[in-house]
Amino acid sequence: MTAADFLPQRRTLTALREAAATCRGCSLYRNATQTVFGEGRTSAEVVMVGEQPGDQEDRRGKPFVGPAGHVLDEALEDAGIDRADVYITNVVKHFKFQPRGKRRIHKRPSAAETAACRPWLDAELQAIKPKALLALGATAAQDLFGRSFRVTKQRGRPLDFDFAPLVMASVHPSSILRAPDEETRREEYELFVADLRALADGLRALREAS
Ligand code: URA
Ligand code: SF4
User: Fold this and answer.
1) Closest ligand 1 atom to 137 CA
2) DSSP state of 87
3) 64 CB less than 6 Å from ligand 1?
4) Which domains are assigned to the chain?
5) How far is ligand 2, taken at its centre, from the CA of residue 187, in Å?
6) First to last CA, the chain
7) Residue ranges of the chain with pLDDT lower than 50?
8) Between 182-209 and 67-78, two packed helices, what is the crossing angle to 10 degrees?
9) Model's pTM, two decimal places?
């Protein structure tokens, strides 16, 4: 079974979100609190794709509302991108974790789980038809662009894929939080903002050309 078995006939974002709430396309729904579907408008020009909801997202039912989401919010602001113009989602819609005492430690989804969940992302992209797509981090980038894709080598520049007229990858904002010291954190943050600015510039160029 995959998410494809749960796709509704109508493929509006509202219908998709409703259907995804009861998805059992892989086993991840069992231990998670709820499906965390993408958030944003159908008219969004940009779709950003992360890995999977984290602890806070699982509790609140919204993507990127925890610590990584705060880094993303700050970076979007610094890059001059309005979060309200962005549709934010994940390749996997349920939180995968390992309990450790009272804490729940994030576990990377397997290739089978990302494949099972992929029909939701494909349907989101179909419904929105964004001008730009940005993959955040290796899990999303490799799911979308192939296993040999290296974010560190190919970040921040246009890629040749047909998900949208402009396709790019950057690091995951949580990687900035994991930087070993404050100076590295600042540097990583500035590189992330630079990638977002490149995305905004690319979008501007697309708008001018059309
Ligand atoms: N990390 C992600 O990849 N997605 C979220 O929604 C939150 C944290
Ligand atoms: Fe369905 Fe995706 Fe959740 Fe698996 S992770 S149950 S495929 S929504």
Assistant:
1) 3
2) E
3) yes
4) 3-209 (3.40.470.10)
5) 35
6) 42
7) none
8) 50
9) 0.97
